[in-house]
Design goal:
Length: 406
């Protein structure tokens, strides 16, 4: 009980709530995609292409924001990123409630994406540095596991309320959270480094040696299957479910709901298992293989009812629930002067990988059936992830109080 109270401190609780709001806003577009685009006058035959375009704008914004907030997190502090990012994406999502054209919708998804990019990396960096070595895996898994439930809230609210109201609720939650953030304190590790002359948040330092580049790219590739599942199999589930012969219509919002319930349980399970087994790499390898098996079931089973399909989405969510472990690994691979840069850019480059993933899927579906096109893209993602695990150092036992030098 004493160790549990130590984990559930203000930093962990507020970080978890911040990620909750972040995921709510991030996934809300996937949930209201069809309803909002129809309301804006997009023809039925253009819903998929326009939806992919808007998703890509949001993810491109996250690529920009990942670099911006990551560098600022090392140069100016973890808390400055948490305040700045949530303020930006809260205002952008409130503005989303008032769009009347696809063009303005796309511009605001870009701005929201920039803001959303800072939340997770800064939170995981802060929690990793604040908690003791033996409990940080529990803390980061709770942040991710609780935060992921923001998608469940988004699915429920997106189903109950008009899509414009759902965006207003998300923006309002962000502004409330901004007030809660006042009670948080900066990482002691960062404070001890703040006034030193060591290079902080230096992208050239990050890319200076082959070892750092290898570790950095491996952290990114390990997470790509997660966003293949979310960006293709879950977001496009209405179209894919028809292609594989699901006997009833499938609603994207429900697919997201079940997937993220599974993801929440997976994040907590993978984080706790990595602590019990004292290994991050074993958990990554196991969960990725499990995810690939479920991808095959998803694409090549037939005759599912809608309920069975949603249950499969939940299992896929659980399989991709190594997100918390993967971000923790990224945080543990690099020194304090580059930790926020890495931990913030890695998840956003992974999310940004949705752009080449969806573009590849779109290109392949003109030649192959939807399931075969998805299989080709998904297999490449899983292969890259499995290979990348071998280039990562086992970091469970690592003391994070170290620096990256020239």
């Amino acid at each position: 009980m004493k160790s549990l109270r130590g984990i559930l401190n203000t930093t962990v609780i507020v970080s978890a709530l911040g990620y909750f709001v972040d995921i709510y806003d991030l996934l809300l577009f996937s949930i209201v995609r069809v309803a909002s685009l129809k309301d804006l006058g997009v023809p039925e035959e253009q819903l998929l292409n326009q939806g992919v375009h808007l998703l890509n704008m949001q993810m491109f914004g996250m690529l920009i924001g990942g670099i911006l907030w990551g560098v600022l997190g090392d140069k100016k502090g973890r808390l400055s990123v948490l305040f700045g990012s949530i303020f930006l994406y809260s205002l952008a999502n409130i503005a989303n409630a008032f769009v009347h054209s696809v063009e303005s919708y796309a511009a605001l998804r870009l701005i929201a994406g920039i803001g959303l990019a800072g939340e997770l990396g800064a939170a995981i960096t802060l929690v990793s540095e604040v908690l003791p070595q033996k409990t940080r895996g529990y803390g980061t898994s709770l942040v991710a596991g609780i935060g992921i439930l923001g998608a469940v809230a988004a699915a429920i609210i997106g189903d109950i309320f008009h899509w414009r109201t759902a965006y207003l609720i998300g923006g309002g939650l962000g502004l409330v959270l901004l007030i809660m953030r006042i009670s948080m304190f900066e990482s002691g590790m960062y404070n001890s480094l703040k006034d030193s002359k060591v290079k902080k948040g230096d992208l050239f330092l990050l890319l200076k040696t082959g070892s750092r580049i290898s570790r950095y790219l491996s952290c990114i590739f390990v997470g790509i299957p997660i966003w293949f599942v979310i960006g293709i199999l879950i977001t496009l589930s209405p179209e894919l479910s028809k292609a594989i012969g699901v006997t009833e219509p499938v609603v994207a919002g429900k697919s997201v709901l079940f997937a993220y319930i599974g993801l929440s349980f997976g994040d907590i399970a993978s984080g706790f298992l990595s602590q019990l087994l004292k290994s991050r790499k074993k958990i990554l390898f196991s969960f990725i293989l499990f995810t690939f098996a479920l991808i095959l079931v998803y694409l090549f089973s037939s005759g599912f009812s809608a309920e069975q399909f949603y249950f499969l989405c939940g299992l896929l969510g659980f399989g991709t629930g190594y997100w918390a472990v993967m971000i923790t690994v990224a945080s543990e691979q690099f020194g304090t002067n580059l930790r926020a840069t890495v931990t913030t850019t890695v998840p956003n480059f992974i999310r940004g990988a949705v752009v080449p993933i969806t573009l590849s899927f779109q290109a392949l579906k003109s030649t192959f059936s939807l399931p075969i096109a998805a299989l080709i893209v998904g297999s490449v993602c899983v292969f890259l992830a499995l290979v990348s695990i071998f280039y990562l150092e086992e970091s469970y036992h690592r003391n994070l109080d170290f620096l990256e030098r020239d």
